[in-house]
Specification:
Length: about 260
């Protein structure tokens, strides 16, 4: 696969309730990242090989790509004795890296087993800028997950463990060397499969924190679904806990034709 143009992540505005926390000791002035120029050397390239068997599937993949979400590098800082750091300016930057990974799934009796993993040659991690003047360090990373699905008495359950490991770790990094997350989904249908209830949960084990997403879907007619749900954040920090004030409800409809 050849992707000739770069598409960055659309991040929430800094004033949005969904803006992620920036890991700096004071609120910095952030200069936006510049999108890479539309040139051949800035393209992204990927390759994939898949094998599909009767009870075992496996895929191998690799790629050369840009990070979709900008990392930040320190442009300037002001240290005022004895107060310390009083001003900080950072610049968003996109950078290129390579990745190699796999995906595998198999059946074992009533269980569906699966695993995915990836090795990133270079990733940038925010760090103590007194140790790293740029404000970041480049390290390789491994990400993997293992999971299983199981159905019994009309109930379907899925469990996954996800871990990220920063290799060649340095204590000046602001991220933990090991980041552990568990996902759990439980669903069941009622009334001849016209009503589906589902609870999907992300649980961060480092903070700890969590996101719980209950949902009810009613198939009112052929091609028409009505649904309602909620998103509930638990914890005070972490990927999910930082949004603990943003709990909410939603309703919607889906028409297929």
């Amino acid at each position: 696969m050849w992707v000739p143009w770069f598409t960055p992540t659309i991040s929430p505005d800094s004033a949005s309730i969904w803006a992620p926390s920036i890991p700096f000791p004071i609120k910095p002035t952030v200069n936006p990242a510049e999108t890479p120029a539309f040139t051949l050397e800035n393209s992204e390239y990927f390759a994939k090989y898949s094998y599909l068997g009767e009870s075992f599937d496996v895929s191998l993949m690799g790629g050369w790509l840009w990070n979709d979400t900008p990392a930040f590098t320190v442009v300037s800082k002001t240290i005022t004795p004895p107060t310390g750091l009083t001003a900080l300016t950072v610049q968003g930057q996109y950078y290129q890296t390579y990745v190699a990974g796999y995906a595998a799934s198999a059946t074992a009796g009533p269980l569906i087993l699966r695993s995915e993993g990836a090795y990133y040659g270079v990733k940038r991690y925010q760090a103590d800028f007194m140790t790293f003047s740029s404000g970041y360090a480049e390290k390789p990373e491994i990400q993997y997950l293992v999971g299983a699905d199981y159905s019994i008495a009309g109930i379907t359950m899925g469990l996954q463990f996800i871990q990220s490991i920063i290799l060649d770790y340095d204590s000046a990094l602001l991220d933990d060397q090991f980041k552990n997350t568990v996902t759990l989904v439980v669903s069941r249908t009622f009334f001849q499969d016209t009503v589906k209830t589902e609870v999907f949960s992300y649980m961060g084990l480092n903070a700890p924190d969590a996101l719980i997403k209950p949902k009810i879907t009613w198939t009112a007619a052929d091609g028409l679904e009505l649904f309602t749900g909620a998103y509930i954040f638990l914890g005070d920090s972490g990927d999910f806990g930082q949004y603990h004030d943003n709990n909410g409800l939603y309703v919607g409809a889906k028409l297929s034709f």
